Amino acid sequence: MLKNIILFFICLFMSYNAVAEKAPDFTLKTQAGETISLSDYKGKPLILHFWATWCPYCKKLQPGLNRLYTKYKKQGLEMLAISLWEDEGATPQAVLNSRGYKLTTVINGDKLSKKYKVAGTPTTFFISKTGQIVFSTSNSNPDAPELEQAIKMILK
Description:
By secondary structure, this protein is of the alpha+beta class. It has five helices and eight strands; from the N terminus they run H-E-E-E-E-H-E-H-E-H-E-E-H. It has helices at 2-18, 56-72, 92-98, 110-115, 145-155, and strands at 21-22, 27-30, 35-37, 46-51, 78-83, 104-107, 123-127, 132-137. The chain has an eight-stranded mixed β-sheet with strand order 1-8-7-4-5-6-2-3. Residues 1-20 form the signal peptide. Keywords: Redox-active center, Signal. This is Peroxiredoxin. Residues 17-156 form the Thioredoxin domain. GO terms for molecular function: antioxidant activity; disulfide oxidoreductase activity.
């Protein structure tokens, strides 16, 4: 059974790698007004995590993403949280900070979510050093093995 599961994930990752597409460029701002663009991460493996402060599934997933980011950031991994579909007055960066995460969040990602074809939150993209989306998921399981496997792929 375990061999079948491993084989499934290998095939899954190979298929995503074979049809990888270029990550759409963007420029967004943090709550502090700092401008951040996809081009700031050129040549670096990047996780883009689309989320919302009110989303319980995002809250469930984020500890796992934060743990993996912490584990691999010394190898060059970058992670950017993109807040979208927020209520008036929401403070996404403050929410992440209160949860103990050292992640940068850009706000007003609604238009960008359309470019990335985000249908719901959380949606997480794994982007290679060459700017290709090699894997995306809407899984909210913080211990899902494909998260770490995708990170290992984009670190290559």
